Amino acid sequence: MNKKKVFVFFPDGVGLRNFAFTDFKNVGEQNGFDIIYWNNTIFSLKDNLDFNEVKIEDHSVHPLLPIYSRARKRVELNISQKKFKDDVYATYKFPFKYRGLKNILKSLYTKLLIWLYSSEKGIVKLRKKINKLERSTSKYHYCKAQLNKHKPDLIFCTTQRATQSISALLAAKDLGIPTVAFVYSWDNIPKAMQVVETDYYFVWSDLMKAQVLQYYPFVKEEQIFVTGTPQFEPHYNLNLKQSRAAFFETYNLDVNKKYICYSGDDETTSPLDQFYLEDLAKAVSSLNSKGANLGIIYRKCPVDFTSRYNAVIETHKDIIEVLDPIWKQVGNQWNEVLPTPEDFKLLYNVCEHSEFVTNVCSSTVFDFVIHNKPCIYYNYEQPQLRKGIRDIGQNYKYVHFRSMPSQQAAIFCTNKNDLEDLITQILEGQLSNVDEGRKWFKIVAGNTPTMASTNIWKAIHDILS
């Protein structure tokens, strides 16, 4: 029997972590699939991993695509705001730019499109217009020729949010090749980040399935498969675990100290993030002066290129140990900073050997509760907050945080004067969010977090059958 040929499509680098560096490929091959990576990134899967790949060398998009895509997102958010009578959708919008003639013209054109297409019927027309623009590009014809040559049975797109994927998926659909989009992240659906239209959608959980149906009425229930995400599978791989002594020796940590992980955020989500690290360092310093022996492992956000933490780290270098994610920068864009397989092992052991994690609204709460470790979320304003700087408090009002089964699914620090006491309670075993956090993880990531790769290949098999 001929093997079914599946193109695993990387429109950008965000899917590499889930679908190149996990056991996803091995599971697919064990299930009898011929897997070829359709690679639109600058990372060579052939050279680095010895995977079969077809490289996409034409990266052109229609010149108007960024404007139309921004208008589509704005219209969808406006419709959600009106439909659900909820102002949260306005907070997902990035402000228009008016500095320079080019930005002024782009912003005015975007506003005109929003006005012209400001309805659910308008959204359908706007998506059709985007598709028409992308079918006119050289990339569309280039991808169509590749598909005609290699004749895959199905295209599995590793993220639904990349505009670079539109023309390639249109080429597949026009050739009658089934297309699937994986919804990449737990917060993407309410934020109007579904850029592509495919024949099927794979989502993490029943929650995300309900959201797709809620926000995208053109998608039918039979098009959606609940699969889970490979993102968390490595946390269940005991082969990645190091002993505490070995891990501490590898990273020159003090075996006599207990470490708290500070997981950094990107500048958009938490523009004053360095000051929360400073608050933690001051709390730890105070506790150490009273007889504790604590340190901080600072793990930065992999796509944060700023130097904003440097002064805090230098001031508290006796407390803070920097363990950078093992990611590789292969370009200048945020989605061209790519993970490496080695980072799975590092993250596993940071979770395993830290006492708990602290951050601003990060999904690392799930990484840590898998390891039975609590999480503190900072939720108070910094005195450095000024007009034009985003208040982190709005993060916790986002739709994806409404999935929490209770406010105890994370430990919220709402006043920095409480931080020292919260740390003490956690270390003494008097305070934890692990039980509720695990319930939350199940709601968001589904019932079978160890089976996501298997579930995805089963769904692909069912589609092709």
From TrEMBL:
InterPro entries, per the entry: Glycerophosphate_synth, TagF_C
* One Pfam entry name: Glyphos_transf
According to UniProt, the name of this protein is CDP-glycerol glycerophosphotransferase family protein
Q: Which organism is it from?
A: Aequorivita marisscotiae
